[in-house]
Amino acid sequence: MKLSQLSIGETGIVKEFTDLEMSVKLMEMGCLPGEEICVSRIAPLGDPIAISVSGYQLSLRKFEASTIVLQ
Amino acid sequence: MNADIRVALVGNPNTGKSTLFNILTGLNQKIGNFPGVTVDKKTGACQLPDGRTAEIIDLPGTYSIYPKSKDESIVFSVLADKSKGLVPDLVVVIADASNLKRNLLLYTQIADLKIPVIVALNMMDVAQKAGIKINVDLLAKKLGVPVVPISARKSEGIDKLKTAIAYANKVALQEDTIDVQSLAPGIIAQISSELQVDNPYIALQLAHQHETLSYLSNEESDRIEALEQEHGFNSQKAQASETIARYNFINDLLYDTVTKPQAAHNESVSNKIDKILTHKVFGFVIFFAILLFIFQAIFSWSAYPMSLIEDLFVWLQSLAAKQLPAGPLSSLINDGILAGLSGVLVFIPQIAILFALISILEDTGYMSRVTFMMDKVMRKVGLNGKSVVPLIGGFACAVPSIMSTRTIENWKDRMITIMVTPLVACSARLPVYTLLISLVVPNRNIWWIFNLQGLALTAMYVLSIVSAVIVAFVMKFVLKARERGYFIMELPVYRMPRWKNVIFTMYDRSKTFVLQAGKVIIAVSIILWVLKSYGPGNRFAQIDQQYAQPRYTKTMTPDSLAKVIASEKLENSYAGVFGHVIEPVIKPLGFDWKIGIALISSFAAREVFVGTMATIYSVEGDADKLQSVEEKMREARNPDTGQPIFTLAVAFSLMIFYAFAMQCASTVAVVYRETKDWRWPAAQFAYMTALAYTASFIVYHWLK
């Protein structure tokens, strides 16, 4: 299951990343393995998405979300 | 600056770092709710309670010491480069108390550089409202550094922070955060000994960042590269394990110092606002309404102050003409300097209004939502969600719009936006279009409601935005990206704008424009004045002599005689000579040498076209009256064929030329200021001129 597959309001827990370079940026922003992520909204045109993670809102593109594998 | 201690402010974006900087120094500067607004290095002086003075340096907001942009790379350079003596005596890390976990990542990195640190815990009020409880004393004890709770927006806790700065230790006493050595044992030891770096974390950073650090010599950088090969050092893997280790440390740290409410909090206000502002339908409706409002505001609110500025200069010019003895000096001051100055200052209302509105949008957090909504569309054409505002602002004036592209962090997106913004039909093109359209397009309706002239003008506006999009799309393939395009962006919570900040932004941007772009524009105006006021040989003297003869002085009124002389002189000036010189080049576009003069003098500003046409055709009466210029141009005949000069083909060819050509010294100057490289404005000038020439050529031959 990837983060990009969740719909609005669904939550998941980060398991691992498929892209090393992206994972470094995401982890810095608080998207770490074991962290709970909730999809709070999707942009009107379907991309990017906004997630809430470790107490704040982060937006990222669908492609970037697809590199986050959930438990 | 003569300061007793040097203090650097470091923190994540959107933590109120700039607000704190303003309070500490009293020297206001730009604050945004947007990542990376603080671009230039900002410093200010702060009086400490013990009477000493501290120099405060505001470093760009960053989430980590690993830079994602050029701005962010300044942070590590300043903190580690001992050679330039920029290393601060103390670092104040500003952390958002409502989101401590992510904010502490940067703290742990800074702490490991072993510079004395103080933590300023900002937004304590927001954290309290969200039900977050922080045991500040325990946190301070565990970190080994002073932790000062503050609220920068409400100016709370500032005195305590100043006291903490005054009594800060001279040596770093913070506890170690993670075992840095174990991240890359071999390479850290070797860099430490070979480059005499005593701090293991700095040694590790050199391994990570040596390619971009300007303070390392080539030999040092090459040596580090060789060491990386030798030890099989993988920068990204090392960074990933470091980040995980740091968050483990932070989780342990926060375990007994911070308590959060268990149950998920009620839906926040910010979330409710987002539901409307990023709604599928209302989101766009509201956004376009805001754009329309900005557009209207720049156009209509600025009209009155702009005419005031113009009137002021007309008054100054008449005053100068009366007070100064007639001659070259008076003419230089009047037609060169004052005209140039007026051309600069007249932009101030538009710049101030655009930046006031943009700073409100940024401050409230709305701008990141615009990016969020528009990203998908704009990305397709090589632009960025944030490019929308500069492009719309371009309808008023490219100058403030190009200055506003600083909010775009991605280098490539920003450059493309800067390159295409001048294509958007700015307000200076309007008088040119109006004049030419009323000259050749009949003023009648088709299909009952559509006025032909209005349609032609609308077409010019649509053409401008279409061409900007097409050029952006082409540039997407031409420009090489410097960094991989990310869209990992914080969506800050909505907040009220800080009005002081809005006013300061207006002032700051207007000042920057006048000082930076003003120099170039005045220089260009003076050069153009020279070209228009002097001619080769004794041509001017001959004209004066000729018109001093009684057959002219007796038959003509002094006023119309002066107009004829001015027209003759312009023809014979260097500008006129240039007009003749470029005539063979512009002939394929349908332009004669008179239009050539107008093209050259338009370089100071496009709207000068109308005034130049008035002089060339020695318009009687008020030269600014469009109708009188229009009449003269309508009567203008080609001396060889007797046919009218301004045919439909010529007029449209000319409009297309003005639509695409970069005839604006202000824009050239501001592009240089924003890119800090002459090659960008040069490339822009070249591509726009080529585009203008080709398009005009096609249009002229198609309509002829």
TrEMBL record, chain A:
<keyword id="KW-0408">Iron</keyword>
<dbReference type="Pfam" id="PF04023">
    <property type="entry name" value="FeoA"/>
</dbReference>
<dbReference type="InterPro" id="IPR038157">
    <property type="entry name" value="FeoA_core_dom"/>
</dbReference>
<dbReference type="InterPro" id="IPR008988">
    <property type="entry name" value="Transcriptional_repressor_C"/>
</dbReference>
<protein>
    <submittedName>
        <fullName>Ferrous iron transport protein A</fullName>
    </submittedName>
</protein>
<feature type="domain" description="Ferrous iron transporter FeoA-like">
    <location>
        <begin position="1"/>
        <end position="70"/>
    </location>
</feature>
<dbReference type="InterPro" id="IPR007167">
    <property type="entry name" value="Fe-transptr_FeoA-like"/>
</dbReference>
<dbReference type="InterPro" id="IPR052713">
    <property type="entry name" value="FeoA"/>
</dbReference>
<dbReference type="GO" id="GO:0046914">
    <property type="term" value="F:transition metal ion binding"/>
</dbReference>
TrEMBL record, chain B:
<dbReference type="InterPro" id="IPR027417">
    <property type="entry name" value="P-loop_NTPase"/>
</dbReference>
<keyword id="KW-1003">Cell membrane</keyword>
<feature type="binding site">
    <location>
        <begin position="122"/>
        <end position="125"/>
    </location>
    <ligand>
        <name>GTP</name>
    </ligand>
</feature>
<feature type="binding site">
    <location>
        <begin position="58"/>
        <end position="61"/>
    </location>
    <ligand>
        <name>GTP</name>
    </ligand>
</feature>
<dbReference type="GO" id="GO:0005886">
    <property type="term" value="C:plasma membrane"/>
</dbReference>
<feature type="transmembrane region" description="Helical">
    <location>
        <begin position="513"/>
        <end position="531"/>
    </location>
</feature>
<keyword id="KW-0813">Transport</keyword>
<keyword id="KW-0460">Magnesium</keyword>
<feature type="transmembrane region" description="Helical">
    <location>
        <begin position="415"/>
        <end position="442"/>
    </location>
</feature>
<keyword id="KW-0479">Metal-binding</keyword>
<feature type="binding site">
    <location>
        <position position="25"/>
    </location>
    <ligand>
        <name>Mg(2+) 2</name>
    </ligand>
</feature>
<keyword id="KW-1133">Transmembrane helix</keyword>
<comment type="similarity">
    <text>Belongs to the TRAFAC class TrmE-Era-EngA-EngB-Septin-like GTPase superfamily. FeoB GTPase (TC 9.A.8) family.</text>
</comment>
<dbReference type="InterPro" id="IPR050860">
    <property type="entry name" value="FeoB_GTPase"/>
</dbReference>
<feature type="binding site">
    <location>
        <begin position="11"/>
        <end position="18"/>
    </location>
    <ligand>
        <name>GTP</name>
    </ligand>
</feature>
<dbReference type="InterPro" id="IPR030389">
    <property type="entry name" value="G_FEOB_dom"/>
</dbReference>
<dbReference type="GO" id="GO:0015093">
    <property type="term" value="F:ferrous iron transmembrane transporter activity"/>
</dbReference>
<comment type="function">
    <text>Probable transporter of a GTP-driven Fe(2+) uptake system.</text>
</comment>
<keyword id="KW-0408">Iron</keyword>
<feature type="transmembrane region" description="Helical">
    <location>
        <begin position="684"/>
        <end position="703"/>
    </location>
</feature>
<keyword id="KW-0472">Membrane</keyword>
<keyword id="KW-0410">Iron transport</keyword>
